[in-house]
Recover the amino acids of this structure.
């Protein structure tokens, strides 16, 4: 029997039972559509998270005081201590010692109360350098960031986060206004554009002042030299690990330490955050895909069920075909191909519905759904495979029918 | 005389149903030569249907030998039997057994599909066969649009299209009115006149009367074998 005739024969059988074929496909359609959606949702969430983290700067090193001596990641004095200094930050900015690093921004942060007229608002006030906007990838909504001269002079200027300005003034257009911190009056020179949130911390509720201003006028911790964090931006994301090594060895040197095990600071990479987030979403994707796979399994069982009914119903036809010279393999292949065509059509319709929903849902849900071409191709292949796997048993039953019994069947 | 188309020797068929043994055929010897028109008659339960299944390669003997057109089919497996049916035998059934989803010409083509004949040649041969049974103008009709007699004629065309060694007709008029019965039997007469070998299985003696040779089957054996009834 010619393959084209086999295909034509299977296709005719499917077309002559349109309703039944459509219902059989339905299980596969639902299964494949949910696979496309869940995989897309998983990939989309992953993309959202990576973009958020990339916005923070995926080429960013975060140097914190305290150390991590435990390899399992237990951080002994992490975040505490006053082992990082302004001198460290200045040294790290040197192109000779750390050639793979670009801008460097130390941060010294204190939770302070800002006042304007009758209203007051407590937020994190950060002292830093002019590199901060570059290093933290922030833009100005109004006004400008403080200048190198402001930084040098320790000028009484302040840049507010959008949320802070809103809370304090009821508006964000507040350039030229004055806020008071601990009796010190500071002029608002700029308002930062919104950046969303990172975990539980709002990136829009903060205030930024020149480091000198922070040290000389606002900070009352008594340790004018220490800083809380030093951000080092690598020259490029490729040079991130080189920059990390250079930073570590320079700081060890400056602190008079011989080995990295003794380090009284920690160098972290934003990528590690990305990795952690990615692994969470990968697990979520696996879970959702598992559920979708169950739906597909049920669809496959539906195919088997209907194919068995079809074999019983078409016993006489099978008998006749055998009497006319169809070998068992011809009969088996016909039913197998029928099941595969059902799988293929169900898969194709499922992909179309899945992609349609993937395009329509994001505007409703507000989450990104990424439709991956590979996932679509794999879905269709899987659907055909399911048709084949669940078609094998009914097809074998059909092939085994004895022609005399089959012909006699009324 | 030329070699026989069908040669049965010591043909036995035993069915087992649980512990019960049933001997459907108890040693039948029979030779049918090319161009013969043979009727096999007998009441139901006589072994007539079993004999028809054996002759049609739809079933195999328990013991004995069956040579069809020079091929020993008694030891063939399912695949070889399927091929033998396809090449050597043209079936005409009581219930016509046409596929409702195919046109008349599509039904006639079906044995050629399993023979692996290309579509163009298939269509041509099927049309020739349909014209031979006088239905050339009904080739695009589906079985539901044809009368019982016409459907059986399509089935006869399907039996002829492979140019088989024998046409095996199993109660071909059982489902037909008297007019269609005359029509179909007349067609078998014509085929015989044109040289086809025909084996007709029936329980009606007036149908059998048209054949050149009549075998009576009773209890799995021929009774008064080879009684020729002159037309």
């Amino acid at each position: 029997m010619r393959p084209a005739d086999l295909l034509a024969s299977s296709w005719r059988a499917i077309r002559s039972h349109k309703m039944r074929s459509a219902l059989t496909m339905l299980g596969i359609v639902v299964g494949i559509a949910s696979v496309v959606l869940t995989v897309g949702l998983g990939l989309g969430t992953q993309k959202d998270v990576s973009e958020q983290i990339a916005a923070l700067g995926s080429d960013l090193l975060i140097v914190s005081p305290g150390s991590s001596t435990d390899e399992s990641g237990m951080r002994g004095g992490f975040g505490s201590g006053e082992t990082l200094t302004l001198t460290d930050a200045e040294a790290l900015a040197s192109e000779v010692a750390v050639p793979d690093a670009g801008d460097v921004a130390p941060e010294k942060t204190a939770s302070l109360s800002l006042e304007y007229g009758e209203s007051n608002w407590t937020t994190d006030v950060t002292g830093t350098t002019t590199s901060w906007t570059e290093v933290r990838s922030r833009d100005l909504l109004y006004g400008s960031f403080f200048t190198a001269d402001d930084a040098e002079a320790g000028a009484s200027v302040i840049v507010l986060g959008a949320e802070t300005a809103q809370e304090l003034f009821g508006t964000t257009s507040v350039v030229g206004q004055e806020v008071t911190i601990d009796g010190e009056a500071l002029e608002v020179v700029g308002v930062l554009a919104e950046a969303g949130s990172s975990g539980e911390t709002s990136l829009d509720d903060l205030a930024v002042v020149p480091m000198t201003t922070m040290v000389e006028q606002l900070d009352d911790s008594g340790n004018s030299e220490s800083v809380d964090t030093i951000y080092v931006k690598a020259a490029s994301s490729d040079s991130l690990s080189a920059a990390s090594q250079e930073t570590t060895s320079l700081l060890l040197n400056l602190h008079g330490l011989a080995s990295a095990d003794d380090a009284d600071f920690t160098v972290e990479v934003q990528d590690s955050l990305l990795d952690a987030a990615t692994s969470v979403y990968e697990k979520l994707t696996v879970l959702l895909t598992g559920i979708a796979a169950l739906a597909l399994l049920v669809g496959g069982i539906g195919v088997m069920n209907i194919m068995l009914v079809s074999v019983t119903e078409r016993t006489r036809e099978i008998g006749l075909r055998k009497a006319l010279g169809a070998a068992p393999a011809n009969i088996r292949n016909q039913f197998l191909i029928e099941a595969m065509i059902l799988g293929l059509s169900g898969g194709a319709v499922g992909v179309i519905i899945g992609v349609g929903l993937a395009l329509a849902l994001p505007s409703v849900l507000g989450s990104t759904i990424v439709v991956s071409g590979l996932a679509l191709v794999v879905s269709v292949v899987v659907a055909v495979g399911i048709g084949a796997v669940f078609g094998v048993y009914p097809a074998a039953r059909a092939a085994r029918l004895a022609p005399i019994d089959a012909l006699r069947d009324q | 005389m030329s070699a026989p188309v069908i040669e049965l020797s010591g043909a036995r068929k035993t069915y087992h149903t649980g512990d019960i043994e049933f001997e459907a055929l108890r040693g039948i010897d029979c030779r049918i030569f090319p161009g013969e028109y043979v009727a096999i008659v007998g009441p139901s339960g006589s072994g007539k249907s079993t004999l028809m299944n054996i002759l049609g390669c739809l079933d195999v003997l328990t013991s004995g030998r069956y040579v069809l057109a020079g091929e020993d089919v008694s030891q063939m497996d399912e695949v070889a039997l399927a091929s033998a049916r396809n090449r050597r035998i043209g079936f005409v059934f009581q219930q016509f057994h046409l596929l409702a989803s195919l046109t008349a010409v599509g039904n006639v083509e079906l044995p050629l599909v399993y023979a692996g004949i290309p579509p163009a040649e298939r269509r041509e041969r099927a049309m020739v066969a349909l014209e031979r049974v006088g239905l050339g103008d009904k080739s695009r009709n589906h079985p539901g649009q044809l009368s019982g007699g016409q459907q059986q004629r399509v089935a006869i065309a399907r039996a002829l299209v492979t140019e088989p060694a024998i046409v095996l007709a199993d109660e071909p008029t059982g489902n037909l009115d008297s007019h269609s019965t005359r029509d179909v039997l007349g067609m078998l007469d014509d085929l015989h006149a044109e040289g086809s070998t025909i084996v007709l299985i029936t329980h009606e003696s007036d149908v059998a009367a048209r054949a050149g040779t009549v075998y009576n089957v009773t209890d799995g054996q021929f009774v008064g074998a080879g009684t020729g009834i002159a037309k």
